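Hi everyone,

Forwarding the result from last night's run.
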Amino acid sequence: MLVFGFSSTAFTQEISSFDIQSTELSGHPLFAKDETARAYQIIGNENKSPRKYSEQELSILQDQLVKLTSDLVSIPSYSTNLDACLAITDYVEKLFKGSGYIIRRFEKNGAQSMIISKKDSFDFDLIFLGHLDVVDNPDLSSYTPKVIGNTLHGRGISDMKAATAGMIKLFLDNSQNPHFENYALVMTTDEQIGGFNGTAHLTQDYGLKAKVVFNPDGGHPLNPSISEKGILQIKLTATGKAAHGSRPWEGKSAIDLLYDDIESVKQQFSYGDIDHQSNITFNLGTLKGGEATNAVPAMAEATIDLRYPPILTVTAIMEKIKNALKNSKLEIMNSADPVSIEADDAALLDLMRALLKQGRFPSLMHETGGCDARWFTPQGSSILLMRLEGTGGLIDDEYVTITGLSNYYMVMENFLDEIADNF
């Protein structure tokens, strides 16, 4: 299968005179304009030639990536399907038998994780991080991969089995590369439900760490994300006084009390919209209260999902919410750190150079979602985020482009060359 991707000819445009508004996603509301300008200012006009693939080599590469991705997609490894998650982890382990890598398996509450590396350690220079689980789709046909023209379709293919397939191939192809002595491939099966038994387990219980974490699980197609939002999920509970609906003055509606507090909380921030996607967001997820239409409710509760940029903190957000409440009890249900990286981070600049070598002019971007990379935030890792060309995840017809598979793989190869002298 041969579908042409990047030209292998080195581009010659002078970056120093390049208009920053001409980068690939400069018109997007999540474009990090100042940070992108800073990165290009540092990189300057460093023009290097990428590895050249012949038409035959490119065809073989694409065939291999399509085959490996298809094999992963065909296993219905949604997060709560523990048997399938075990099966897909077994499949990956078999790929590495006899490769010279050490394969370590971990399990917590049924969730499977694995570390593939040259050394028996939890401390690495560079980790390639991926997950093998997907969100369930009752349409079983979605687990049968399909090639349609230049696209490969299947459940979880963009989130993130295609990206994981590329990383698996990268490690198999570099089994003799001496730089891989301090690199690791980490894969888990519970990212879609929070990563608590996978990446969190490995980082918090085993001390897994790395100077750099490459996680192609979100953000924008072959354009690095420099931030992902943190998560704060809260519950508000209001207590009123029950009464008959015909005599509401004898009671106090918990729903009314709760509604007043919800409105007060909503006034505390400037929230995101389609034009201001980097702002904090507010989603009233559930609202429960009352037992009958003709009864004044004595209890009511609401759950709220807030996604916040790295410039905010949970402490500051909670303080504003507490001050806004008059009638409700506040409880934190879940929280997760945001992810951020500076525009002058050496690893990020190496990823930019790797993209430039392929003839791209990438934009640095912000991102509204989150991923397992957040578990490395407390240790100060340089976290690199982007995704393949294709759809986003969690839609009925996920796909990646076949050229995108090979483009992504070649970018990773270039990245290896660029980052080799950083450690």
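Confidence is low (pLDDT under 50) at residues 4-14.

Cheers,
N.
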